[in-house]
Here is the input.
Amino acid sequence: MAEANFILLDRVDSTNVFARSHFSDLPDCSVVAAVEQTAGRGRLGRRWESRRGLSIMASAVLKRVEQPFHAGVVVGLAGLELVRECIPLAFSFLKWPNDIYVDDCKVAGILSEGVISHGRLDGVVSGIGINVNDEMRTLREAGIRAVSLREIAGREFFLEKMRRDLAKKIEKYYIMCQSNSPQMLSLWRRENRLIGEVLTVCLPAGGTKRGIFTEITERGEMLLREPGGAVCRFDCGDVKIDAALVDFETLKRNFNKYKSRKG
Ligand code: BTN
Here is the structure.
């Protein structure tokens, strides 16, 4: 990836806001990262808190996506690969729609935002926050299931290199997205390791639905089969893991088999 496509800012309100407001000037597949965000944005209107210099905060400018959700797929697969390189022995996976988990704790989140001008979609900015050297214990004590790579690995990571590695991986999956999107989507589905498990979806308008997560469609929607057999389709929402209902031991065993097959 050309160095010119990677921008590191010292302090910014939000890399997503920056990438959106400079969208037309930034080359396709630019990655804007920051050491500090003063107003990081999370999904569903939430804030994304991270302390200066402790985590990855980066946004990709993707101008040629066939479907908007593909941008989150590109960044999700790139983020997952980076996480796996840092903590190869842990059970890490994608959690629909756009999180990266280790066991039942969130290690990274992704926020994708369409950029529209004159009523037309010009592209998508997809931002990722990865908890790297942070201390998440206080959040966990407050009941929020979050973890950092340092807490899992027991050592610190060098953010400067990680940011650049992330940009290279985003480029790799963006190329796959354009040359072979079915291949990218089947990889994305495979890495969504909660398919087949009982989960609860919190609906954006309020309320919840519990059922078996049966499938992810071609459009990136989640299908959930309720106990009575009705199938619900979601294109957004928050998914809750009830650790007592998810068979993590089997999931981990299958994951280890998959890893050893991949070599
Ligand atoms: C989530 O709610 O899980 C999504 C969090 C996304 C956070 C990242 S940090 C870099 C980029 N800039 C932002 O303001 N948000 C995203």
